[in-house]
Specification:
Length: 421
């Protein structure tokens, strides 16, 4: 009995969980990295630009989340096929995910490019915020094809539990985005000064470069030869529909969650540009400090699904508990110093442009800290549930909470007229 317990513990070690999760911590947060970079540079343009990117940035995160949600279904299937040793199944699910992401990105490009003003008009009252948001999205939406296909590649490698290059590719994405943000927002290196439109173009260019880098790596990767990824056996409607069926509740979860966040920024915009700017600063801190949670959450999807494929269902709960503890300690390690000493950490990036904004945002940051504490463990359990394939149950959990959350936002701002805290 003791030998069996020791064997199980070795199979689900902290080292194994951390080895898979660490690269995903940045890789799974690629869109967050882009959004953060855009926000930091636009902070130095004007408070209106900074406020606008808080609104339109969340809108684009919803667009990105649709592709990410559908890729999660493929990731779960790839991990399960790998656990079963079904190499043909791995190939067919990967190829199907590429087709699905390409079709989705084409549809969403058409909708956003043609109807962005109509969509924004439902949420934005300020003409200045509206104009800035449209400037950004008209350039940003061109990157959707490369972003979605890149997400398919990330989910494939995550499903195989081979996550090292994801970290490298995200570093490429961030580096290119920083260079073009600086160049196109402020007009450096003989490039035009485009302001917030330059941030949108910079993000699109960075996604193109990151996607091409990933394709080169995929073609070079000798370990993938056994899957024969270039061998086309025809389109499989059964796999296509199974991925959609598994992914739809995940997509709905993400849209409900981020949608309620989008509504939050829309309602805060009614208070004024300064309140929206404070909220965007809190969003930046939240996105930075929650990066470890996204890594562990994505890793638990793969690990749980792989365990099911290997017939090791009895080990799943212990695996989730270990991952939850790692997530909690990682968040505390990074979050506590930042929340206690925000000036020390934020002034090098943001202090010189508007020193008072950090002071005004400090009470909000303590709220962010409380959110992160509960989110660290809850997100791992929630994604562990997703990894088992019980995505519909997860959707109900997300939907009920989002409805309560949205009602409270509306009541706090429009009815009770309480403070931003």
């Amino acid at each position: 009995m003791q030998r069996k317990i020791a064997q199980i513990k070795s199979l689900i070690s902290y080292k194994r969980i951390l080895a898979i999760s660490a690269p995903i911590m940045l890789g799974s947060a690629a869109q967050n990295v882009v959004a953060l970079t855009d926000s930091v540079f636009l902070y130095y343009v004007s408070e209106v630009d900074f406020a606008a990117i808080g609104f339109v940035g969340v809108f684009y995160l919803i667009i990105a989340a649709i592709g990410y949600g559908f890729s999660k279904g493929a990731q779960i299937f790839v991990a399960r096929m790998k656990g079963k040793g079904d190499e043909q199944g791995v190939r067919r699910h990967f190829q199907t995910s590429l087709i699905l992401e390409l079709a989705l990105s084409t549809l969403l490009f058409f909708l956003v490019y043609n109807y962005a003003r109509y969509i924004f008009s439902w949420f934005v009252q300020s003409e200045a915020i509206m104009a800035k948001s449209l400037e950004y999205i008209q350039w940003r939406i061109w990157g959707i094809w490369f972003g979605y296909l890149g997400i398919a590649l990330v989910s494939f490698y995550t499903g195989l539990a081979r996550t090292r290059f994801i970290l490298i590719d995200t570093a490429i994405l961030a580096t290119v985005n920083i260079f073009f943000n600086y160049s196109l927002i402020f007009g450096k290196f003989d490039l035009p000064a485009m302001g917030i439109a330059g941030a949108g173009l910079a993000s699109t260019l960075s996604e193109i470069v990151a996607f091409l880098a990933f394709v080169i790596y995929l073609l070079w990767d000798k370990k993938l030869k056994r899957f024969q990824l270039m061998a086309w056996r025809g389109f499989d409607w059964g796999i296509f529909l199974s991925q959609i069926k598994l992914s739809m509740p995940i997509v709905a979860q993400l849209m409900v969650g981020l949608g309620s966040w989008f509504i939050f920024f829309s309602i805060v915009e009614n208070i004024g540009a300064h309140a929206l700017a404070i909220s965007n600063l809190a969003r930046i801190v939240y996105l930075c400090l929650s990066i470890p949670v996204w890594g562990y959450s994505s890793a638990i999807n793969t690990l749980v699904s792989s365990y099911i494929g290997e017939g090791r269902k009895a080990d799943i709960l212990a695996l989730i508990w270990k991952t939850g503890r790692l997530a909690l300690w990682s968040v505390l390690l990074f979050a506590v110093p930042v929340l206690l000493f925000p000036h020390f950490f934020l002034y090098p990036l943001l202090g010189s442009a508007s020193p008072g904004l950090i002071d005004d945002a400090r009470p909000i940051l303590f709220v962010v800290g409380a959110i992160l504490f509960f989110m660290a463990v809850a997100s791992v359990f929630f994604n562990g549930l997703t990894g088992t394939g019980a995505t519909r149950f997860g959707l109900w959990i997300q939907l009920i909470n989002a409805v309560i959350y949205t009602i409270l936002i509306y009541a706090v701002v429009n009815h009770w007229q309480l403070s931003l805290v």
